[in-house]
Amino acid sequence: MSKPSAILVGSIGATVWIKVEGRGNFENSPNIKSLARTMISKGRSAFVLDLENCELMDSTFLGTLASVAFNLRDIEGGTLRVVHANERNFSLLESLGLDHLFEIEAGATPTAPIKLNHAAGPGEPNIGDQRAVILAAHEALVEADPRNATRFRDVIEFLRTEIAESSIDVNRS
After folding, report:
1. Do residues 99 and 80 touch, judged by C-beta distance below 8 A?
2. Residue 22 included in any domain
3. Which segments in the chain show pLDDT lower than 50?
4. Is the Cα dihedral 88, 92, 98, 99 positive or negative?
């Protein structure tokens, strides 16, 4: 049985340290997205993603990381380093073509901050917000590596349709 998932955050100097406990998935992707936005808006541009206790990552989580990496790439000195990636997680990053977006450190890595806190999320997202996060994540995967277009075409088309239909329903109300 897997342990509950959590996103923990701390800092070492100007570097934001994000540690994934359990699974990196669509449920905690909004937390990562919100955290990254907040830290970037505060001038932070160096991020470390610690996967030491990450059991697995789904495509939404991976796409959210890709999106964060794209945002950081637009900032001078912006970096997203991945540390403690086990073989499975590294394979996922590599198979989706994300290994070129991140600095992946296989050897000795810096020590995590002594104190890590649970990341405060954006609150309970509504279904429309969840769809938007999942869609943006999968679009980022395609942007990261065009070969992902065939892998995620159906998901992207489905979500675009769902979002369009829900906005039509809202406008009719």
Report:
1. no
2. yes
3. 170-173
4. positive
pLDDT tens profile 71-108: 999 898 899 999 998 899 999 999 999 999 998 886 55
Q: Is residue 149 part of a domain?
A: no
Amino acid (one-letter) located at 2: S
Residue 89 structural domain: 6-122
b/e per residue, 85-102, with b = 16+ CB within 10 A? beeebeebbeebbbbebb
Q: What's the N-to-C CA distance of the chain in angstroms? A: 44
69 falls within a domain: yes
Q: Total structural domains in the chain?
A: 1
Signed CA dihedral, 85, 89, 90, 93: sign only: negative
Buried b (16+ CB within 10 A) or exposed e, 40-69: beeebbbbbbbbeebbbbbbbbbbbbbbbb
Q: Which CATH number belongs to the domain containing residue 32 in this structure?
A: 3.30.750.24
Residue 55 counted as domain residue: yes
What are residue 164's DSSP bridge partners? none
Contact yes or no for 70/47 (Cβ under 8 A): no
pLDDT at residue 155, rounded to an integer: 97
pLDDT reported for residue 129:
84
